[in-house]
Design goal:
The protein is of the alpha/beta class. The chain is 44% helix and 16% strand. It has one domain (10-230): TIM Barrel (Alpha-Beta Barrel), CATH 3.20.20. The chain has ten helices and eight strands. An eight-stranded parallel beta barrel has the order 1-2-3-4-5-6-7-8, surrounded by five helices. The structure holds cytidine-5'-monophosphate. Cytidine-5'-monophosphate (C5P) binds next to strand 8 and helix 9.
Length: 233
């Protein structure tokens, strides 16, 4: 039993290089978590058949492929993902991409999450693309636009969570990666918050990777996070 009686906000990032490694990790984590993120690495290794297998085992899936292409291609690819029963899919928060994606998933249970600005982007990258203003301003502008175009939620750093929540309102989904328990190794993440802080700031789901996936005992690490979250109330 976990200390959380209702909504479990943890999504574990399956950042591993093979289906076998992913299966082993899921097995070790056990029933504590049922929501997994498949990103580019595992998708490139194991593909959609593997994702379908996880779905048919009863897992919820966040497919983090960050679609960004011409509207026709986005539309057709989103329709294929929507047909599988995947729960969340990421797309870039560019108006033409969001419009095409929103139309293509109509009638399905797929929820679209917009990535406003990649956290690896610096102000120089924005200058290079011809954007004026700050990264924070662009994040806010794109979050507004995403809601206007019928996107279901936003992926945001925990440090932007409170600002993004105030823009998207109480019902939209807010997913935050970059979450670490106090004292856990930060890896290459600089802008981190604790799971409890991210939830207090309005996150609906937390994507957790290395703190759990690289731990000697992943299940114990999940229990530690669930325990910390139980105190948020
Ligand atoms: O750092 P950690 O291993 O917990 O990262 C888990 C996941 O969150 C990774 O799959 C990574 O792609 C994603 N991430 C992100 N934005 C960040 C940091 C991590 O989307 N700033």
């Amino acid at each position: 039993m976990t200390p959380l009686a209702t909504h479990n906000p943890i999504i574990i990032a399956l950042d591993v290089e093979s289906a076998a490694d992913a299966r082993s990790l899921i097995h070790r984590i056990g029933p504590r978590v049922n929501f997994y993120k498949v990103g580019l690495e595992l998708y490139a290794a194991a593909g959609m058949d593997f994702v379908r297998g996880l779905l048919s085992d009863g897992h919820r899936i966040f497919l983090d492929l960050k679609f960004y292409d011409i509207p026709e291609t986005v539309s057709r690819a989103v329709a294929r993902v929507a047909a599988t029963g995947v729960d969340f899919l990421t797309i870039h928060a560019v108006p033409s991409v969001m419009r095409a994606a929103a139309a293509a998933r109509r009638g399905s249970n797929l929820r679209l999450l917009a990535v406003t600005v990649l956290t690896s982007f610096g102000s120089e990258d924005l200058d290079d693309l011809g954007f004026e203003g700050t990264i924070a301003e662009l994040v806010e502008r794109r979050a507004h636009k995403a809601m206007e175009l019928g996107i279901d939620g936003i992926v945001a750093s925990p440090l932007e969570a409170a600002a993004v929540r105030s823009i998207i309102g109480p019902d939209a989904v807010l997913v935050t990666p970059g979450v670490r328990s106090a004292g856990a190794d930060k890896g290459d993440q600089k802008r981190v918050a604790t799971p409890a802080q991210a939830i207090r700031d309005g996150a609906s789901y937390l994507v957790i990777g290395r703190q759990v996936t690289r731990a000697a005992d992943p299940a114990a690490e999940v229990d530690r996070i669930l325990f910390e979250l139980a105190e948020v109330g």
